[in-house]
């Protein structure tokens, strides 16, 4: 890796990091705005233009609240909990391909933090680690309700991770690659996986709702049953970290959904735009501008799914815990296995037929 | 006994496959919520936009003056007696020579105080007043206060300012109801708010 490549990578990582934080920050604003709009209100609109300074005001408030650690809590783990949640939430953004490639001085650098050939495995590994943040936080607070909430959250996350992984296998069978960049590149030209894997998509998005602890699967935050769930004892910025991590998770999973099922940075008429841009600006600048447009499209898709998360939040009521577990183990996992079988059969028998017919 | 015509027969029939799959129901729900996303907002931006509270709304108190600027209150104490919360207290004084332009009756309230923490804005003082002196404004609330010494409102805050008189379209409930009825029939347009003479 030479200097130019290194610099572009560094800038990409910093920008992605900053953007993730910024989007998570404004997701809190958007959440309240969307909530307001859906309930025929106008949402926060006092701080700044249309309430745009509201996240800053909230953050300021959180910072100045008393930072309290219960006397019988395990102090180090109590602090480690929210940090872990935040860390694991942010780690996953490293392998997401935000665009195709940048051409700078003859170098072709992918617009992706780390070009890993096992990208999706990495994402799953990191997401699975997210459970630790919740579990450690709930255990360290030395509060029965927190522990119960944490156990619920952890078992929910683990249960839905199984179905999520299984629904993904079908995609991997089609793309025969674990690299996120490769999966996106294969969806070029409206070959979006959503058209081939509608069932897998439904399973995947349901599981991502559960993984992000979002409504209708926000059982860990059941204020009526368990006071407040795993973060009952948390206040100030530690609670802020937990809540913030949820919003980061939401954005990351939206990005993953658009990468896996909605073609990432691909959009219809992409080749035409690319040709026009190259003709107008030359191979280097034109290519870079096309990449930026693709990135904008990617963020559009990801943000749509962030909106979708909020939209669903105000539509579907919360599941009961046994319903949640039933859905995860008895419905989604068998469905995901069924989907794998169908996909396998299609890849084995249908694909050769269609390919020969098309040729 | 049937109370409404909206009652439905409860049934325990098995759900169909589409119903058990939830997805059609979820899609319907999403359609409903997104419709609300674009619908008109009902919020009233309060400090900037104030809603008309109606002619008989009971807000902050006012001690009326008459057309010549004389205080109407004769310190009879009927308002204080009528007050269920015992929020009103007053000290009466006798009008001396040369004060005829200040007080309409021979007796007047030297001190008239309303305890705003006790007041429940029931409007019984209004109804008890034989001199049409006490009113609860229909267009203004008691402003928010944070200090103890702002709780008791004296005559300095209560007595009407002649340069900015308190006017209403209707001064009694009967008048207000008659006006409402006229409006409903479409007869009343442009009712001019007036101060009671």
From TrEMBL, chain A:
Catalytic activity: a quinone + NADH + 5 H(+)(in) = a quinol + NAD(+) + 4 H(+)(out)
Keyword Membrane: yes
Chain segments annotated as transmembrane: 6-26, 76-99, 119-141, 162-180, 239-262, 289-312, 332-354
Localization per record: Cell membrane; Membrane
Pfam families: NADHdh
Membrane topology classification: Multi-pass membrane protein
GO cellular component terms given for this protein: plasma membrane
PROSITE patterns: COMPLEX1_ND1_2
GO molecular function: NADH dehydrogenase activity; oxidoreductase activity, acting on NAD(P)H, quinone or similar compound as acceptor; quinone binding
Alphabetized InterPro entries for the sequence: NADH_UbQ_OxRdtase_su1/FPO, NADH_UbQ_OxRdtase_su1_CS
HAMAP family: NDH1_NuoH
Name assigned to this protein: NADH-quinone oxidoreductase subunit H
Gene this protein is translated from: nuoH
Automatic annotation (TrEMBL), chain B:
Broad class of enzyme this protein falls into: translocase
Keywords (A to Z) from UniProt: 4Fe-4S, Cell membrane, Iron, Iron-sulfur, Membrane, Metal-binding, NAD, Quinone, Repeat, Translocase, Ubiquinone
Leader sequence residues: none
Topology class, membrane: Peripheral membrane protein
UniProt domain 4Fe-4S ferredoxin-type: residue ranges: 64-93, 110-139
Binding residues annotated for [4Fe-4S] cluster 2, in chain numbering: 83, 119, 122, 125
Record InterPro entries: 4Fe4S_Fe-S-bd, 4Fe4S_Fe_S_CS, NADH_quinone_OxRdtase_chainI
One Gene Ontology term of the molecular function aspect: 4 iron, 4 sulfur cluster binding
Quaternary state and interactors: NDH-1 is composed of 14 different subunits. Subunits NuoA, H, J, K, L, M, N constitute the membrane sector of the complex.
Protein name (record): NADH-quinone oxidoreductase subunit I
Species for this entry: Dyadobacter sp. 676
Name of the encoding gene: nuoI
């Amino acid at each position: 890796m030479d200097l130019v490549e290194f610099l572009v990578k560094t800038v990409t990582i910093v920008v992605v990091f900053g953007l993730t934080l910024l989007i998570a920050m404004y997701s809190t604003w958007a959440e309240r705005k969307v909530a307001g709009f859906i309930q025929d209100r106008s949402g926060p609109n006092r701080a700044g233009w249309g309430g745009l300074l509201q996240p800053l005001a909230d953050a300021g408030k959180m910072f100045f609240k008393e930072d309290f650690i219960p006397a019988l809590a395990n102090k180090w783990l109590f602090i480690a909990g929210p940090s872990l949640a935040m860390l694991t939430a942010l780690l996953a953004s490293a392998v997401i391909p935000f665009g195709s490639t940048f051409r700078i001085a003859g170098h072709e650098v992918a617009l992706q933090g780390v070009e890993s050939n096992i990208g999706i495995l990495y994402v799953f590994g990191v997401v699975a680690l997210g459970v630790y943040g919740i579990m450690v936080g709930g255990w360290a607070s030395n509060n029965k309700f927190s522990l119960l909430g944490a156990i619920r959250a952890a078992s929910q996350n683990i249960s839905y991770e199984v179905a999520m992984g299984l629904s993904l296998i079908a995609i991997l069978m089609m793309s025969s690659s674990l690299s996120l960049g490769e999966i996106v590149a294969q969806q070029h030209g409206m070959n979006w996986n959503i058209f081939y894997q509608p069932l897998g998509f439904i399973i995947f998005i349901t599981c991502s709702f559960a993984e992000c602890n979002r409504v209708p699967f926000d059982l860990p935050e059941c204020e009526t049953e368990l006071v407040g769930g795993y973060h009952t004892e948390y206040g100030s910025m530690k609670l802020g970290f937990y809540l913030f991590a949820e919003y980061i998770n939401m954005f990351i999973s939206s990005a993953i959904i658009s990468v896996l099922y909605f073609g990432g940075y691909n959009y219809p008429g992409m080749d035409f735009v690319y040709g026009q841009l190259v003709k107008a600006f030359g191979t280097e600048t034109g290519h870079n501008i096309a990449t930026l447009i693709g990135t904008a499209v990617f963020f559009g898709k990801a943000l749509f799914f962030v909106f979708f998360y909020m939209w669903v939040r105000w539509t579907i009521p919360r599941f009961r815990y046994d319903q949640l577990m039933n859905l995860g183990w008895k419905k989604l996992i068998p469905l995901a296995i069924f989907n794998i079988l169908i996909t396998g059969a299609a890849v084995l028998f249908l694909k050769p037929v269609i390919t020969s017919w098309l040729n | 006994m049937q109370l409404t015509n909206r009652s439905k027969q409860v049934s325990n029939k098995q759900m169909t496959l589409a119903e058990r799959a939830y997805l059609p129901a979820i899609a319907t729900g999403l359609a409903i919520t997104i419709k609300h996303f674009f619908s008109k907002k009902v919020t009233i931006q309060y400090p900037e936009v104030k809603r008309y509270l109606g002619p008989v709304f009971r807000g902050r108190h006012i001690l009326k003056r008459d057309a010549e600027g004389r205080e109407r209150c004769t310190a009879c104490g009927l308002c204080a007696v009528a007050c269920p919360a015992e929020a009103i207290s007053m000290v009466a004084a006798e009008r001396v020579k040369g004060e005829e332009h200040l007080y309409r009756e021979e007796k007047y309230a030297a001190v008239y105080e309303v305890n705003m923490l006790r007041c429940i804005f029931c409007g019984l003082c209004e109804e008890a007043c034989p001199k049409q002196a006490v009113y609860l404004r229909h267009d203004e609330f008691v402003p928010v206060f944070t200090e103890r010494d702002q709780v008791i409102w004296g005559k300095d805050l209560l007595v009407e300012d002649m340069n900015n008189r308190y006017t209403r379209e209707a001064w009694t409930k009967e008048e207000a109801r008659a006006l409402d009825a006229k409006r409903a029939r479409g007869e009343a347009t442009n009712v001019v708010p007036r101060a009671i003479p």
